[in-house]
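Tip: read the tokens left to right.
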């Protein structure tokens, strides 16, 4: 387990460094012709620049995916890891293929190069991976936080799915305008909309897709008792916050500010609240003299057998 934990940290650091490397290329190198000229003076300069543009997006999403997959396997077991990852990737890919083919459910758009091999010539293979690792991070923190609240089990489930999907969609509030309007765009909207050039339908599609695959995972998780990783939520939180920061820097560099504030209110703020709820109650439940009943109340016991 310690080796897995160390591998997760290594992958997480690589994930963040890859995003920083990509940001430097998009914000500093591409718009700056003089900087490109200076870079070309070094023998390794053009090579690094071309690798950054061709593989930067692929690398950070692959590292994020592997880090979250190892984390889910270590903290929750193979069943709960795969029963989230497989539906998340399969259903998000189906939505993306449908969207790029028909315009439903997101609106009419198409992907450009820079995010890896395109499945069916339409959707980069890295896109459903990002749905998985961001969706899992948002959902597991929301569910762990809500596990500390005295509610009917079915209501806790619904709220976890809703807030998990909302936090996932809030990330896209910030990312989508920047990635489609950056100096080197990664996709293009062919259907003009009111939200910084994209249709509001896009976010309804994001919310619906997130709700569907999180609901499927929640149903599958009922087949085996689930121990939520209340004591170990740092990796999913860092994954979410670092990806949000990546999107924020891109948006601010493009002069797009309102989506950032919207994303903070609907994504960052609720996720931090849930993270704090989970951590605070675990600390309370771990105090000397805490009864087993109190531990169950705070979600320390297996969710599958608690109230």
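Filled-in amino acids:
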């Amino acid at each position: 387990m310690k080796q897995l934990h160390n591998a997760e940290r290594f992958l997480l650091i690589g994930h963040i460094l890859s995003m920083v490397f990509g940001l430097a290329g998009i914000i500093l190198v591409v718009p700056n012709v003089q900087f490109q000229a200076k870079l070309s003076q070094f023998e390794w300069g053009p090579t690094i620049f071309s690798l950054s543009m061709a593989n930067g997006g692929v690398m950070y999403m692959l590292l994020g995916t592997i880090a979250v997959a190892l984390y889910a396997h270590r903290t929750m077991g193979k069943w709960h890891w795969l029963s989230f990852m497989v539906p998340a990737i399969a259903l998000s890919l189906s939505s993306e293929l449908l969207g790029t083919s028909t315009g439903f459910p997101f609106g009419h758009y198409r992907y450009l190069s820079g995010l890896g091999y395109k499945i069916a010539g339409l959707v980069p293979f890295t896109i459903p991976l990002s749905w998985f690792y961001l969706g899992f991070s948002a959902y597991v923190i929301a569910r762990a936080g809500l596990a500390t609240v005295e509610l009917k089990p079915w209501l806790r489930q619904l709220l976890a799915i809703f807030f998990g999907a909302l936090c996932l969609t809030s990330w896209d509030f910030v990312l989508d305008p920047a990635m489609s309007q950056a100096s080197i765009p990664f996709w293009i909207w062919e259907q003009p909309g009111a939200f910084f050039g994209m249709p509001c339908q896009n976010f309804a599609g994001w919310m619906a897709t997130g709700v569907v695959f999180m609901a499927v995972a929640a149903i599958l998780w009922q087949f085996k008792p689930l121990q939520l990783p209340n004591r170990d939520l740092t990796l999913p939180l860092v994954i979410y916050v670092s990806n949000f920061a990546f999107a924020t820097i891109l948006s601010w560099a493009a002069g797009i500010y309102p989506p950032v504030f919207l994303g903070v209110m609907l994504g960052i703020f609720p996720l931090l609240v849930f993270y704090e709820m989970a951590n605070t109650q675990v600390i309370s439940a771990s105090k000397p003299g805490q009864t087993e009943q109190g531990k169950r109340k705070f979600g320390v016991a297996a969710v599958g057998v608690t109230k």
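The chain has a mean pLDDT of 86. Residues 67 and 269 are 24 Å apart (CA to CA).
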